[in-house]
Amino acid sequence: MEGKDLATLVTCTPLGINSHRILVTGERIIPTPAGDLDKAGKHSDLPKFPWWAVLYGTVLLGTGGMTVRYTLRMKRAVSLRDALKREKTRSSSMDADVKNMTSAER
User: InterPro entries annotated for this entry (predicted)?
Assistant: First the structure.
C-alpha cells in the first residue's frame, strides 16, 4: 500500500507440525509522542495491587487451619477420655471379680 510503511511476517502453525502458513501484517507507527514520554515517570491512574485481598486470604487460611487443628485435638481428647473411662470400668469390674473369687474361697 502506498503511503504506509508495512511489514509482513510469515509464521507457521500448529506448533511442531508447521503445516499451515500465516501471514501477519503490521504498520509502522510514528515514534512515541513527547507528551507520552513526559508522563512515563508520573503517577499512574491504574489501580494498585490489592494487598488487602492477600491479607484477607492469609487471615482466612490461618483461621481455617487453627479451627481444623482445634477440632482434631478435641476429637482426640474425647476419644482418649472415653478410652480411659472404658479402661477404668474394665479394671473396676476385674477388681470386683477378684474380690468375689477371694470371698468365695474363704
Answer: Sortase_dom-sf
Backbone angles phi and psi of 101, in degrees to 5: -65, -45
What are the helix and strand counts (H, E) for the chain?
Answer: 2, 2
Residue-by-residue pLDDT tens, the chain, 106 positions: 788 889 999 999 998 899 999 999 999 888 888 888 777 778 877 788 999 999 999 999 999 999 999 999 999 999 999 998 888 888 777 666 666 666 655 5
Q: Which DSSP letter does residue 33 get?
A: P
Say what the pTM is. Answer: 0.43
How far is the C-alpha of 2 from the C-alpha of 25, rounded, in Å?
Answer: 15
Residue closest to 87 by CA, chosen among 99, 79, 98, 97? 79
Query: Which value, in Å, is the radius of gyration of the alpha carbons in the chain?
Result: 40
Domain ranges for the chain: 50-93
Strands (E), 14-86: 20-27
